[in-house]
């Protein structure tokens, strides 16, 4: 019998054999997917309805930071365009903010660093079953959306990235509750240093109350939208569309 608190994370923590394949491979095994997401569809709606979406994720002290912080997902987009940005130290990189906004933005890395920034030491929980604690610094996404004049008709925020899967950019999305959560930031620094390539340089999303695959790396574009229809297959993200990951990955 499955206990009420029996989660995908606890399954993964015990599934050492599956973990050897890594999160981008294990989920492509049909039997593994069935185990990973057993009961999730039924529990997801109840979980979202009962939890306080405005609650803060736990924050930690510098002494509690992990000595090693693994990277999740893509370790290097390794495309000609990304290589050119790396060679130029991201001087030509721009983050486009558009969609349902009154004032579309094109932000440089210097622009983001000049905004009021938040630093937070939080725990990253990966669907592979590992966790690590690190410090992230960057402006709150909500403030960037306010600067762009996000419209009331917008219900979701879609993130488009520099890494490619099957020749198309990686993408993810969150709703407006998480977009305006104070711990949802556009991180350009990790542990007091500019992001390195494996961890998502130059900027990645941190949405601290969700699992790691929602924390899109190598950000290139942010769009406010009224619906997820027409974004990939309409489920809200690459892994959601491809291998039935949950769109809402709250922890």
From TrEMBL:
Pfam families (alphabetical): Oxidored_molyb
Residue ranges constituting the Oxidoreductase molybdopterin-binding domain according to the UniProt record: 90-224
Domain of life: Bacteria
PROSITE patterns noted in UniProt: PROKAR_LIPOPROTEIN (PS51257)
UniProt name for this protein: Molybdopterin-dependent oxidoreductase
Species in which this protein is naturally found: Sphingomonas mollis
